[in-house]
Amino acid sequence: MVPGGSPALHLFFGQGFRENALPGNPQVETVAKRDVLDGLERATRATGKGAYAKGKHGFDLLARVDPASVSGAAPHAKQFLDILRATAGAGT
């Protein structure tokens, strides 16, 4: 459900993280946003950092997620990252 994110989620939330609470669909782009957020809340509520909250945890998690894994599982994310890389390369 969270391509490239599962190891990052485990490391970030630590003990009490329940991966089996996340939606199991490997086609992450087809999973409803509400299902992702509900799954993250359930998977993290018993951790020392508490239940996932986008404003509280989102940026720290983004910094830890592997972009190559995300690109491999989510075509729209790959397209977005390719555009960012091309734009960044054009400015140098």
Describe it.
It is a single chain. With 92 residues, this protein is mostly helical. It has one domain (6-90). The chain has five helices and no strands. The protein has helices spanning 6-13, 33-44, 54-62, 67-73, 75-90. It is globular and about 45 Å long. It starts with 5 loop residues before the first helix and ends with a helix.
Summarize the SSE layout with pairings.
Blueprint: H1 6-13, H2 33-44, H3 54-62, H4 67-73, H5 75-90
Helix pairs in contact: 4-5
Give the integer mean of the pLDDT values.
Answer: 88
Number of helical stretches of at least 4 residues: 5
**What sort of overall outline do the alpha carbons produce when their principal axes are compared?**
globular
What structural category do the secondary elements indicate? mainly alpha
Helix residue percentage: 55-70%
User: Main β-sheet: number of strands, strand sense, barrel status?
Assistant: none
- Low-confidence region ranges: none
Distance between the termini: 35 Å
Portion in strands: under 5%
